[in-house]
């Protein structure tokens, strides 16, 4: 690669990150001064009161270091700005993960536009609008999506083994379901490339090691049952397209791509193998998320991201073969993608209802001036509250 090509590549990467940043903050703008009830404000007071070892404090059963690590940054700010700081930190993490996906896909495609679109999927995925955008407790789901995509690329594993291992370690210590994304890695252990096999085995050790740690902490029976006591697994009347698509689309689309991938003209195309890998991970994630968590929008984020990126790679190979209908296929895919993105672009009611955090802190400050030794309740949206000590509210 010439110096000019390197400069262009670097500037493209920077520009892509800038676009991702604009879009994620545009999505989160109405919720940027609010804190969602799930996971709520729990991590931040812990970060304020305790030392850095609180990062390894389970919540509620398993380790969740991604959210707790982010809370350590938020805790550096005055309480009045904790919601804004929390949203900002989380949004920038999403941007970093989008760029991570960009880098992984670029190793496979060597195409900057295609790589940018792949990272963009995470930033604009429609099902993130309900409770995931800007939510400090939901970082683990985009983390899982990013790691799953990296595991599907043998070239990315060869190029960035240490980076992928670090992100996988954080993801594995943030939730116990990462192991289902290792299906591509298990396949790659049969590679004739000895160096690749060594790197793949190292990644498997990271994932299964963190899984064992999580299971030992949670307990085997709890790990198997998941959120069985609180999860919703039955369809309800008037569910709407948002929920139906989140439950069924990733799996059905992955099965469709697997079927079409076996057809002769598509079988040996450039992205055939990575599509198989992505489909396997999509189905595994979607099924396990439903079993453990039921019907919940946060569990849609990772499978939906993988499914959309699979669709982008399929479209590229498809139009390369069937050039006569290239424009029709691209236009159809664009409409199919842009409608849900626009419709579910802004943060939803779960993140935008209720009072702003700054107004709650102002209210609590008035109370704490007269009751400095008390605890005070700060409301979070859309319901619920967080109990905070008055000394934390009034300190400068």
Automatic annotation (TrEMBL):
Transmembrane residue ranges: 12-29, 89-106, 163-188, 200-221, 241-263, 275-295, 301-320, 327-345
Keyword annotations of the record: Membrane, Transmembrane, Transmembrane helix
Protein name: Unannotated protein
């Amino acid at each position: 690669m010439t110096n000019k090509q390197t400069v262009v590549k670097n500037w493209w990467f920077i520009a892509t990150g800038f676009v991702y940043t604009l879009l994620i903050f545009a999505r989160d703008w109405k919720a940027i001064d609010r804190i969602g009830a799930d996971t709520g404000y729990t991590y931040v007071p812990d970060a304020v009161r305790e030392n850095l070892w609180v990062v390894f404090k389970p919540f509620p059963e398993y380790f969740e270091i991604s959210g707790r690590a982010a809370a350590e940054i938020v805790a550096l700010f005055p309480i009045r700005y904790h919601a804004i700081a929390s949203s900002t930190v989380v949004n920038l993490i999403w941007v970093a993960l989008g760029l991570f996906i960009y880098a992984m896909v670029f190793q496979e495609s060597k195409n900057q536009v295609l790589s940018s679109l792949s990272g963009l999927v995470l930033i604009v995925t429609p099902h993130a609008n309900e409770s995931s955008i800007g939510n400090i407790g939901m970082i683990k789901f985009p983390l899982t999506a990013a790691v799953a995509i990296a595991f599907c690329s043998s070239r990315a594993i060869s190029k960035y083994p240490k980076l992928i291992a670090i992100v996988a370690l954080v993801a594995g210590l943030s939730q116990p379901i990462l192991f289902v994304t290792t299906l591509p890695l298990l396949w790659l252990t049969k590679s004739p490339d000895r160096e690749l096999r060594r790197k793949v085995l190292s990644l498997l050790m990271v994932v299964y090691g963190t899984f064992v740690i999580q299971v030992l902490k949670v307990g085997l029976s709890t790990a198997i049952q998941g959120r069985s006591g609180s999860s919703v697994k039955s369809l309800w009347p008037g569910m709407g397209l948002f929920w139906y698509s989140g439950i069924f689309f990733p799996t059905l689309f992955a099965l469709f791509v697997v079927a079409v991938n076996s057809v002769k003209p598509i079988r040996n195309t450039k992205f055939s193998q990575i599509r198989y890998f992505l489909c396997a991970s999509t189905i595994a994630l979607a099924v396990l998320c439903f079993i453990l968590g039921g019907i919940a929008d946060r569990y849609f984020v990772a499978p939906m991201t993988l499914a959309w990126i699979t669709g982008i790679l399929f479209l590229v190979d498809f139009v390369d073969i069937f050039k006569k209908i290239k424009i029709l296929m691209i236009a159809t895919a664009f409409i199919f993608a842009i409608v849900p993105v626009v419709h579910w672009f802004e943060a939803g009611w779960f993140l935008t209802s209720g009072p702003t955090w700054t107004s709650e802190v102002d209210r609590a400050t008035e109370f704490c001036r007269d009751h400095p030794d008390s605890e005070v309740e700060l409301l979070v949206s859309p319901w619920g509250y967080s109990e905070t000590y008055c000394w934390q509210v009034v300190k400068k």
